[in-house]
Amino acid sequence: MNRISPSKPVVWTGYNFAYLDEQTKRMVRRALLKALAIPGYQVAFGGREMPLAYGWGTGAIQVTASIIGPRDRLKVIDQGSDDATNAASIRRFFRSVTGVETTASALDATIVQTRHRIPETPLRENQVLVYQVPSPEPLRKIEPRESETRKMHAYAEYGPMLLTLYEDIARYGRVASAYNCPVIVNERYLASPSPIPKFDNPKLSHSPAIQLFGAGREKRIYAIPPYTSVRSLDFEDFPFEPSRPDGRCSLCGSETSYLEEVIMDDVGGRMFVCSDTDYCRRRREGKGEGPVRAARAKA
Amino acid sequence: MDAISNSASRTALLEASGVSKSYGARIGCIDVSVTVGAGEVLGVVGESGSGKSTLMKCLSGQIVPDKGAVIYRGNDRKPVDVFSLSEMERRRLRRTDWGFVHQNPLDGLHINVSAGGNVGEALMSRGVRNYGSIRASAQDWLERLEIDPSRVDDRARSFSGGMLQRLQVARNLVAAPRLVFMDEPTGGLDASVQARLLDVLRTLVRELAVAVIIVTHDLAVVRLLADRLIVMHRGRVIEEGLTDQVLDDPHEPYTQLLVSSVLQI
């Protein structure tokens, strides 16, 4: 079932379990506890240098390293795909420094580290979703000063944030940005959902799983505890709408999953496929949710 | 609390007493006491370095004076000491009750945001969450400041200097403040643009009955706009009175010099 994880992982010697030393992991865990106690609040933590470049998931790797245990099963996705370079190398890294089992299945995983997507398969309790966050401060676009954004968070002055939505509507007649749409967590803190498509925004709310966000360059951690309300920012007369390309997956026929466009040739040929490869594969194998192979049967 | 209970004039909107601020050995302003009534326009004139801007920053709660108190009577008519408020309350006051027109319009505007967004931001920070009504009032206000309302979606970047300044005024007046601080609002504009801005300002200020504290070195501006005038020199208020009175019959030598040095055409 799992083509990615080899039967016997090669564990590097000379490293502490999960690469970080125990004191660092304790420090990160303390930040995580604080983040969970104040949903959506950005907690500063002593981010370490990691053996990969900023922007490739250094923050989330530190979070994952701090919470992972020998009995965990890890899934890593990049834009929904288990096979993308970023996901594959992070998965191999953790297999090498922990020896834990890795999986592509969102059903089997206890920890899912993700870049830019939330799995289609609904997550359960006892699962942890760790997001890679490139820029944790949603207010940065309208207020460049860190001292000022902190005050805006402290006093919940989030009115000006609507300006970004206003500009979109004024220019395009609708909220055109399709990803990274800011959210209010627990009716208090404004947070960046990391750049997930706004299709995934509703899944943030009242999720049974724990959601942790790690930003390595900015050294910030924030979190959404299970069953917490998450509201996407919108206007009364332009309510939030999760967007999805029209059409169905060419491989599994799903009409509800988030699709990626694949250019097939240079004469305009294209196809749409699920961005969540695990979900798509399970549906094709007949183990997934919903009607299977509808597209193929018709084709 | 003494200052609050002793504030004699019941109609005063903002009342400053004994405000002093120095920057080390350099003096900002010394022992300044001023009051502004509701709907009144107060002019503050003086040469560069006379403490006008320091006074303005103290009055608007941007810097804390070394001595003195600033009492503001808000919507609920209860006088509050601006500097005994928590930072949160002070920011709320600045956001809801006050407006600020900067000399450089770029200090008060988002250059890459549409005119409508710039005007509407004031409403959004006051909790308006309806796009249609925000845009409608933005257009209304552009019109009132003689900006073509069809330019509501144009970015501020594409506006001329005079239009930017009018846009900044619109942004400040849209949310119906009770007190607007203006720091050299006509500085850097050419004479005809300046006249037009002054004309619009005069009409609106009367119409809305908004109180204004206007800092300028341009006596023509205060002659047109201000009801009352204070003249500052080396950090002190040296003369105070009705605008026409002070300008037509200046008592202090420095004021006489100031008035006589205005270029006549």
Characteristic terms for this protein:
heterodimer; A: 299 residues; alpha/beta; Rossmann fold; 2 domains; 7-stranded mixed β-sheet; 8 helices; 12 strands; 26% helix; 17% strand; globular; B: 265 residues
Structure, explained:
The complex is a heterodimer of chains A (299) and B (265). The longest helix of chain A is centred in the first third of the chain and has 16 residues, at 22-37. Chain A is globular and about 60 Å long. Chain A has 299 residues and is of the alpha/beta class. Chain A has 2 domains: 22-140 and 167-232, Rossmann fold; 259-298, no CATH class. Mean pLDDT of chain A is 91; it is low at 292-299. Chain A has helices at 22-37, 58-67, 85-98, 146-154, 162-172, 201-204, 277-284, 294-298, and strands at 43-44, 73-78, 101-102, 111-115, 128-132, 183-185, 189-191, 210-215, 220-224, 230-232, 259-263, 270-274. In chain A, helix 1 packs across helix 2 (58-67). In chain A, the strands form 3 sheets. Chain A has a 7-stranded mixed β-sheet with strand order 1-9-8-5-4-2-3. In chain A, strands 7-6-10 form a 3-stranded antiparallel β-sheet. In chain A, strand 6 and strand 7 form a beta hairpin. Chain B is of the alpha/beta class and 265 residues long. Helices cover 39% and strands 25% of the residues of chain B. Chain B is built from 11 helices and 10 strands. The longest helix of chain B has 18 residues, at 191-208. Chain B is globular and about 55 Å long. Chain A binds chain B through residues 142, 151, 154-155, 157, 159-160, 162-163, 165-167, 169-171, 235-238, and chain B through 87-88, 91-92, 95, 110, 113-114, 116-117, 120-121, 124-127, 129-132, 134-135, 152-153.
